[in-house]
Write a structure and sequence with these properties.
The complex is a heterodimer. Chain A has seven helices and three strands; from the N terminus they run αααβββαααα. In chain A, α1 crosses α4, α2 crosses α4 and α4 crosses α7. By secondary structure, chain B is α/β, with parallel strands linked by helices. In chain B, the strands form two sheets. Chain B has a five-stranded parallel β-sheet with strand order 1-5-4-2-3. In chain B, β7, α9 and β8 form a beta-alpha-beta unit. The N and C termini of chain B lie far apart (51 Å). Classes of the chains: A mainly alpha, B alpha/beta. The interface between A and B is medium-sized, with 28 and 17 residues.
Chain lengths: 148, 296
């Protein structure tokens, strides 16, 4: 597999937003994003058992990935309000990747989060959760599209 | 002036009731100039979504850890942090946090490495305060800067290093991780990023008492007799024992260190903060797998 170095456009925009502000403002930006994470749609609210738990996140996070017939990827996340950091990470992935074609999602660099400049503000250990979310999203996309 | 001890009867049953306060006690003392309330959470943003009025945030990762070395801040770093948060050496520090005070207990343990005289936990932590509908605010306080003295960290009493744990093999030890981590099976999940240790299992001889067993459903510490059942009868510990506690990076075991030391009155408990991320990566240290403690 080649190693793409460019981010999908909306994710790149978000990365620029993070890069352009101070460490403290990065936390505030993450907090704002955590509030923007959409609620689960109705068909998943009653089917949380079918979602995949991201164990690498320090707080409970559940993930569902749906690839439509048009090969576009749809992402659904469920995390409690007491876990704003985890919600913020999920929201970054949602805002950056939801609705993108499967090959674009699969081509997202695994280390994209380094560009957000959050390591200093959040700690590298906590960032592992976001890397794990992307890894699991990609595995789900591969399983559903037969690509890999 | 010294801040009074919470004389709540439940707290009075513990070995060191002066190390805990109830939410009700704290609610009546938020304006006491002798007290600084500290929130310490797993989630770095939780404080910013709302906190106890007047509380300052101390984050374990970004405030209490050294930036470069795997260690805690030094005496100068701690003094700077305390001064910045408006904490003096004679301040009563009251710490609370999320997840059954998991990280709050860790912060308290680090405060104890620097010998801060009066540091207490809020029984039940953040969850209990919120559940009781008590006041929260998003207003970040701007404390007046203090001159906290530079006190060197004392790692000799309540902290254990790998070589000391090796020398301690065969003596009482407690692994406070989940049963899956203890047996070693949690390192066998294919395709998933791992916890950062190349070997799974536990330190031979260590009893497994997951840390959260010490907490009741409402996040408060279990009553003293329940704790004695768990650690004395269950894990076979004795208050006179020298005990080493560990987990993955020393956070969960700080919680157990607090329980054994301050609630049950153990006189010699050390937290091995290198924990499994050091042990499970070290060459030729002994490891036991499965549900039995095993022997060294």
């Amino acid at each position: 597999m080649s190693a793409p170095t460019t981010l999908p456009p909306r994710l790149a925009e978000l990365a620029d937003d993070f890069e352009s502000v101070s460490k403290n403002d990065r936390l505030q930006l993450l907090l704002e994003l955590s509030r923007e994470l959409p609620d689960l749609p109705e068909h998943l609210v009653d089917a949380r058992d079918s979602m995949e738990q991201v164990h690498e996140c320090q707080s409970p996070l559940f993930l569902a990935v749906e690839v439509g017939e048009d090969q576009r990827v749809h992402l659904f996340f469920d995390a409690p309000p007491e876990a704003p950091t985890t919600r913020g990470f999920a929201s970054i992935l949602h805002a950056g990747l939801d609705g993108e074609p499967a090959p674009v999602v699969l081509g997202t660099p695994d280390d994209f989060y380094v560009r957000l400049g959050l390591a200093e503000a959040v700690s590298p250990l906590r960032l592992r959760g976001m890397a794990a979310m992307l890894a699991r999203i990609k595995r789900n996309v591969r399983e559903q599209t037969g690509e890999g | 002036m010294a801040v009074d001890t919470d004389d709540d009867p439940k707290l009075a049953s513990y070995a060191h009731p002066e190390r805990l306060v109830t939410t009700g006690w704290l609610a009546e003392r938020l304006d006491d100039p002798g007290i600084v309330v500290v929130e310490s959470d797993e989630d770095v943003l939780l404080y910013d979504t709302g906190h106890i009025p007047g509380a300052v945030k101390v984050d374990w990762h970004t405030d209490l850890n050294d930036r470069t070395t795997r260690d805690y801040v030094d005496g100068a770093g701690f003094a700077e942090l305390m001064s910045d948060k408006g904490i003096g050496r004679d301040t009563t520090v009251v710490i609370y946090g999320d997840r059954n005070n998991w990280w709050a207990a860790y912060a308290l343990w680090v405060f104890s490495l620097f010998g801060h005289p009066d540091v207490r936990l809020v029984d039940g932590g953040r969850a209990k305060w919120v559940a009781e509908g008590r006041e929260m605010t998003t207003e970040i306080p701007s404390p007046e800067r203090t001159e906290y003295p530079v006190v060197e960290r004392d790692d000799s009493r309540i902290r254990a290093f790998k070589d000391q744990v090796l020398a301690h093999l065969g003596q009482p030890m407690i692994d406070v991780r989940s049963p899956g981590e203890y047996t070693g099976e949690l390192l066998h999940m294919p395709d998933y990023p791992q916890e950062g240790a190349v070997r799974g299992g536990h330190i031979p001889g260590a009893a497994n008492v997951p840390w959260a067993k010490a907490a009741a459903d409402d996040g408060t510490f279990r009553a003293r007799d329940e704790l004695e059942e768990l650690y004395l009868k269950g894990a076979g510990l004795d208050a006179g024992d020298e005990v080493v506690a560990y987990c993955r990076i020393g956070e969960r075991s700080s919680h157990t260190w607090f329980v054994l030391t301050h609630l049950l009155g153990f006189g010699n408990v050390r937290n091995y903060d290198g924990s499994w991320t050091e042990w499970g990566n070290s060459v030729r240290v002994p490891i036991a797998t499965g549900a039995e403690p095993g022997s060294a």
